Amino acid sequence: MSEAEAMSISQAGGEQEDAGQEASSAQLSKAQLKRLKKKAAAAQGGEEAANGAAANGAAANGAAGGGGGTAPEPAGAEAEDSGDEEEGAEGEGGEAAAEGAAKKKKKKSKKKKAGGGGGAAPTQQTVPPTVPVKQLFPSGVFPEGEWQSYKEDQRWRETAAEKRELDRLQFDMINEVRQAAEVHRQVRSYVQTIAKPGILMSELCEKLEDSVRKLIDENGLNAGIAFPTGCSLNWVAAHWTPNSGDKTVLQYDDVMKLDFGTQINGRIVDSAFTVAFNPRYDPLLQAVKDATNTGVRESGIDVRLCDIGAAIQEVMESYEVELDGKTYQVKSIRNLNGHSIGPYRIHAGKSVPIVKGGEATRMEEGEFFAIETFGSTGKGYVREDLEVSHYMKNFDVGHVPLRLPRAKALLGTIDRHFGTLAFCRRYLDRLGEEKYLMALKNLCDAGIVDPYPPLCDVKGCYTAQYEHTLYLHPTRKEVLSRGDDY
């Protein structure tokens, strides 16, 4: 027997033994074959096309070379197998092409992400600041202020379950105020780097206010600037900001009070500090800073406002400052004071004096207060002087008939953009208002809008100011505007 005949007999025997296996494999559907091929291709990675081609070639060669030595298969089965092979080859080719396209797409998308085109949220502030603060805190929870305990007779509040629950219920509201406070901290940190001798006061105010608008993500009356930037110089204690065209320049020997506010949904953060470049003014600034911190420390639920004023005056007037060989006692400006704050209302009714002898009204739970103190080397008493820049709609005014159409139109602008928040002439200029002074005077004469002229001590003296906003929680007080700077 020849070697070829022996091989043919053994193959025929093998075919008879494996007939059941071939029959079961022939019963596999086309879809099942495709799924098996896909799994194999995935396991082999990028080499599936080459491996598939090699396997097809081997199968074709095997069929051609072994056809004479093996028992012939039925014509129908042959046709089915060849059809399956062709379809599988086409399927593999299509799958390889599809996978190649998918890989290209993945590479493109990776390149886009690496290039920053996806717009990922920033993690730190820019210089100058332009990123809204809410993007820096994607969790939506903003930094807390400085916590201080109440005096001994109110310490029980910290452990009382009822008061702690009241505190938790106020979280959403207080979180909005903390956002406004964080905007204030970041803006004033930036402003302290640009407030240098030689800068135009108008330029300083514009940069400060533009930063507030960006960081708070200004949205009409829902979020924005709470009142015009006060940048009063030297003997001017408060309520001065440059009107359009003002060319005042900050000088090395100036003492500037920077007072600005931020608000979200009418919740106002009011805070101020003093900038002085000449170190001879340091005792004046230290006196006012210590007096403000004393007022914050003495504040609390059921505390009488007159007691806070007496404590502030005692600290303030314990300081002296020497200027040009003459020693001055630092005086509390007796007709200026701190105040309670309400929604869209910077002065909500209660005044916090900075001298003894004030009213005996008490602070209450759930109130916001601006604790601000003013020290002076002059008389310690201010009067209205210079050109008016600050205005504010009267919070309690009702309907007042107006005859001038221009006054009615201006009032509409004020209602839409400021409501009962303070504004200045620069803000009206920014909105495109022109030739409005007569209409503005008409609104003031009618009692709808109140003017707030600059407040000045005697010419030639120096005044300083520090201010913080605090909230009287049911459990403790929180100094919302506290920062690393003051």
UniProtKB/TrEMBL annotation:
Keywords: Aminopeptidase, Cytoplasm, Hydrolase, Metal-binding, Protease. Residues 78-93 have a biased composition (Acidic residues). It holds the Pfam family Peptidase_M24. Its main location: cytoplasm. Gene3D superfamilies: Creatinase/methionine aminopeptidase superfamily, Winged helix-like DNA-binding domain superfamily/Winged helix DNA-binding domain. Its cofactor is Zn(2+); Fe(2+); Co(2+); Mn(2+). Residues 1-132 are annotated as: Disordered. It catalyses: Release of N-terminal amino acids, preferentially methionine, from peptides and arylamides. Its EC number is 3.4.11.18. GO terms for molecular function: initiator methionyl aminopeptidase activity; metal ion binding; metalloaminopeptidase activity. This is Methionine aminopeptidase 2.
